[in-house]
Amino acid sequence: MIKSDQHMHSSFSGDSKAQIPDIINSAIEKNLDTICLTDHFDPLFPCYRADEDNIFELDTVRYNEMAVKLRNNEEIQSKINVRVGVELGIYPKVYDMCKEIAAEYPYDFIILSSHTAGGMDPYWPEYWEDKDPIDGIKMYFEEILQNLQNYDDFDVYGHLDYCVRYTKTTPKQRSLKLYKEIIREIFRIIVDEGKGIEINSGGLRRKGFELFNPSTEILTFYKECGGKIITFGSDAHTPEDVAYGIKEAGDILKTIGFEYIADFKERKINFTRL
Ligand SMILES: [Zn+2]
Ligand SMILES: [Zn+2]
Asked: pLDDT tens digits, residue range 148-201?
């Protein structure tokens, strides 16, 4: 049974209003052993609408001050392990900025995430306009590969097929065989470098999608490619969503044949039997 949730957002992320103490209380009520706060930092996002502020800039000073204080609080420590991480939104223009952010504070855990491809967020309808969904998905995976070839200061790659949450696709259009060679190369680098991926339940809460990211097919392929390091992440943006889908995630991983779930402390991996 999984008892660690390694991906969640508080009001330090521009798209969440959750207070960190409420998140911690929710995790304690849900009997978790470990949580990791992973607020967004997407440097220079969005890079294509000049009139908008970047709501995904993280105030790292205040975030680290507050999160570390709660992590070190003895009363909290007697009930749950709280870890302090960050979800870094990467794309080719910001590799150097990501390196600086990752090195700025001694985070417990760094999720690397692609929230854009070709300078566009797949969350936006514009991403999919005038594009065959298969080409949109391919472009997303190709950029992940490019990121991995150029950046290595992270622990797991987040929600690997995130883009498919935001367009209507048939199972055939999402099928692994269309993207297998790109994903094989993605997994080759991840496994060779001792990094991992996550099973993310954010999409499970999305009406009309209701699936984990990545898909069971991709998770199975990860195992075939020698992948062993996998974390669970609810990607909660509210206290109630902490640990969302945690039991189903464990069942899926066990069915595929994974034996362990991972969590991180001071960037070091810890395995717990599923
Ligand atoms: Zn994300
Ligand atoms: Zn997230």
From this structure: 999 999 999 999 999 999 988 899 999 999 999 999 999 999 999 999 999 999
Distance, in Å, from the CA atom of 135 to the CA atom of 2, rounded to the nearest integer, reads 35
Asked if 201 and 251 touch (Cβ cutoff 8 Å), the reply is no
- Residue 207 CB neighbour total at 10 angstroms: 5
How far from 152 is each of 94, 96, 231, 249, 253, CA to CA, in Å? Answer: 13, 11, 18, 27, 25
* Residues whose Cβ atom is located within 5 A of ion ligand 2: 87, 235
Q: 213: which DSSP letter?
A: B
Residue whose C-alpha is closest to residue 112's, from 42, 192, 217, 46: 42
Single-letter code of the amino acid located at 93: K
Distance from Cα 9 to the centre of ligand 2, integer Å: 6
pTM of the model: 0.96
C-beta of residue 157 within 8 angstroms of C-beta of residue 190: yes
Nearest ligand to the CA atom of 213:
1
123-146 average pLDDT score:
95
Looking at residue 51, its pLDDT comes to: 63
Distance 172 CA to ligand 1 centre (A): 25
> How far is ligand 2, taken at its centre, from the CA of residue 235, in Å?
5
Kindly list the structural domains of the chain, giving each domain's residue range(s) and its CATH number in brackets, ordered by start: 4-273 (3.20.20.140)
Q: Which tens digit of pLDDT belongs to each residue from 42-87?
A: 998 865 555 667 778 899 999 999 999 999 999 999 999 999 999 9
